[in-house]
């Protein structure tokens, strides 16, 4: 089964980190990604650019609307993802628990979601 491991944080997540702390955190993510790769469960994954460079597309009253980031109304931001292959949800949760974001303060979190397979 495939699982998406979403890396999230609140809107101020990491703002108080020093340059050295940011460097150590990225090194921890690299190590985690290497562990996933060596175990053969990694299908993909990358950090995402800040929401300030993103856009949202919505449809209201039949009209499409594009809103450029940042998205000030968002309380939580997805900062990256890993796509993994696991035999069970329990195994996916074990891998997710090793993710650096699951081991930071309360401003950071990891969400695990099974990929839904659409019928043919």
How many beta-strand elements?
6
- Round the Cα radius of gyration to an integer and report it: 16 Å
Q: What is the fold named in CATH at topology level?
A: Alpha-Beta Plaits
Please report the number of helical segments. 2
Tell me the domain tally: 1
Q: What is the beta-strand fraction?
A: 35-45%
Q: Looking at this structure, what is the CATH superfamily?
A: Dimeric alpha+beta barrel
Structural class: alpha+beta
| Helix-residue proportion | 25-40%
SSE sequence, one letter per element:
EHEEEEHE
Identify the CATH class: Alpha Beta
CATH architecture: 2-Layer Sandwich
Shape: flat
Uncertain runs are: none
Q: How is the biggest beta sheet arranged?
A: 4 strands, antiparallel
Mean pLDDT figure: 90
What's the end-to-end separation, in Å? Answer: 17 Å
Strand neighbour order, sheet with most strands: 2-5-1-6
Which helices and strands occur, and which strands form pairs?
Elements: E1 2-10, H1 19-39, E2 42-47, E3 55-60, E4 63-68, E5 76-85, H2 89-97, E6 108-114
Antiparallel strand pairs: 1-5, 1-6, 2-5, 3-4
Brief synopsis:
The chain has 120 residues and is of the alpha+beta class.
Describe the structure.
- The structure is a single chain.
- By secondary structure, the chain is an alpha+beta fold.
- It has a single domain, classed as Dimeric alpha+beta barrel (Alpha-Beta Plaits), CATH 3.30.70.1060.
- Helix content is 25%, strand content 37%.
- It is built from 2 helices and 6 strands, in the order βαββββαβ.
- The chain has helices at residues 19-39, 89-97; strands at residues 2-10, 42-47, 55-60, 63-68, 76-85, 108-114.
- It has a 4-stranded antiparallel beta sheet, with helices on one face.
- The protein starts with a strand and ends in a 6-residue tail after the last strand.
């Amino acid at each position: 089964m495939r699982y998406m491991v979403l890396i999230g944080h609140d809107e101020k997540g990491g703002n108080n980190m020093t340059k050295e702390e940011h460097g150590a955190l990225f090194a921890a993510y690299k190590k985690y990604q290497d562990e996933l790769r060596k175990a053969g469960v990694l299908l993909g994954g990358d950090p995402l650019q800040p929401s300030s460079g993103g856009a949202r597309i919505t449809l209201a009253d039949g009209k499409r609307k594009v809103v450029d980031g940042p998205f000030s109304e968002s309380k939580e931001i997805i900062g990256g993802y890993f796509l993994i292959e696991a035999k069970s949800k329990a195994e996916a949760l074990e891998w997710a628990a090793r993710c650096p974001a699951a081991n930071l303060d309360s401003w950071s979190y990891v969400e695990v979601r099974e990929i839904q397979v659409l019928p043919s």
